[in-house]
Design brief:
By secondary structure, the protein is α+β, with helices and mostly antiparallel strands. Helix content is about 20%, strand content about 55%. It is built from two helices and five strands, in the order βαββαββ. The protein has helices at about 15-25, 70-80, and strands at about 5-10, 30-45, 45-70, 85-90, 95-100. The strands form two sheets. Strands 1-3-2 form a three-stranded antiparallel beta sheet. β4 (about 85-90) and β5 (about 95-100) form a beta hairpin. The longest helix is centred in the C-terminal third of the chain and has 11 residues, at about 70-80. The protein is globular. The N and C termini lie far apart (about 30 Å).
């Protein structure tokens, strides 16, 4: 993708205080939906985190936001090794990045 990337957020990253702490600003965006997936909760260590997994016939509601390359790398660091960034196509037709847990549940 380019200098300004689209990111689909559905969990912790939707929280304003998390955005301010990580990026120094609040993200504004457009509601969108990821078809063929469902939102689940995974346990990493002693903490529960939102995640997505493939699920035909289901969808995940979220927000489509613009982030720059530096912010995307900051988010990669925040998500750590537990989450991987992958490209998806949303119901709107937009191609965007999304974070999902790296290991099967």
């Amino acid at each position: 993708m380019g200098d300004s990337d689209l990111l689909f957020i559905y969990g912790t990253l939707k929280q304003d205080y998390v955005q301010r702490a990580l990026l120094g600003r609040e993200l504004s965006g457009t509601p969108d939906r990821l078809a063929g997936h469902r939102k689940i909760v995974v346990t990493l260590g002693d903490t529960l985190y939102p995640d997505i997994e493939p699920a035909p016939g289901e969808s995940v509601d979220g927000l489509l936001v613009y982030v720059n390359e530096k912010e995307l790398h900051m988010l990669d660091t925040y998500e750590g090794r537990e989450y991987v960034r992958k490209e998806v196509v949303l119901e709107s037709g937009a191609k965007a990045w999304v974070y999902a847990a790296q290991h099967p549940h």
